[in-house]
Amino acid sequence: MKVFADLHHSGLYYSLHLLFEKRLGWELYRPIGMEWFEKGFWDIAKPYDNNIGTVKQFLSIKDGDVGVANSPPLNRILEGQNEANYYKIEEKYHNYTQKAITFQQFCDMDIDIIIASTPDHWVTYKKLRDEYKPHAKVICHMGNMFNEIQPMIANGTIQNLLSSTSAFPTGKINTVFYHQEQPVVEFIKPTKTLNVSSYTHILPLPSQFAMYKQYLPHFNFKAYGGASPDGWMNTLLDLYKSMGNDMFVYHVKPGGDGYGWNWHSAFMIGRAMLTNISDYRGQLGELLFEDGLTGHNFEAHTVEENCRILREYVDTDRFIKMGENARKRWEDVVNYDSEYQKILAFLENLQ
Description:
The protein has helices spanning about 10-25, 35-40, 50-60, 105-110, 120-130, 150-155, 205-215, 235-245, 260-270, 305-315, 320-335, 335-350, and strands at about 1-5, 25-30, 85-90, 95-100, 115, 135-140, 160-165, 175, 195-200, 220-225, 250, 270-275, 295.
């Protein structure tokens, strides 16, 4: 089976690689080449007024070894490849090889499944299927709680929904709710490093981060991620290693971020989360959080109380138990093997 999927989030796409190529033994392809954009079948940059720099970042073959705004390049083509029908792309962050195809290569290939991971592509890829691959099935993927979901279910745009969000009514359409798979590592027992790290891009609410950094000077506050003060994590394993050296992971992101790879990574490793839980209210990540047990909710206390409580967590070694609780909660909530069985049933019933 050959699966074609868009790429807009590297973690999501890697999870599709683990599902379709590692678990199922199928072939996964994604777009490359400016012709996708020129022909109107690539809309990732649409929210950014189709900024040509963003388009080239995702699609350009010629400029594919150059990232944007110090971001890792997305199209680093491996030398010496001998496959004529796709490009091999080196993906260093997750340490694997992607298969990328031009529009013409897509047209020349037998495609069984097309996956669209944004609302714009739910429409665009249905048109792509109708015009070029009429026998393919279209899966609409949802990693954020998009406002467009209910109208598009109602008007028939969505017939197959693969959703890594909290569950909600979808009527009679073929649906499965799941967690995006990521490599699992053993629990890393927290130690008194006094490290508190954020891993979100562009450091949301920098004033709050700076305030706690000032009020808790004996803690080592770091902010990693794109356009964040302490720079990128080069690989996923570097991220895991850094989190394993933290006492707490700081994650404040107004509006949440749908599935939340960093959020789930921290709980998997066994780190108590410092957060504003309203960011995740009603989202999938909320299932992992319990104030005082698996993390700390800044919003439930005054700033002065938050500082006192965090010091108490350290002085009493309570942070160790909170880390153990975080890992256990992740194990209770996330089960890739059982969810895989549900995904198989979903795939058998594609409309």
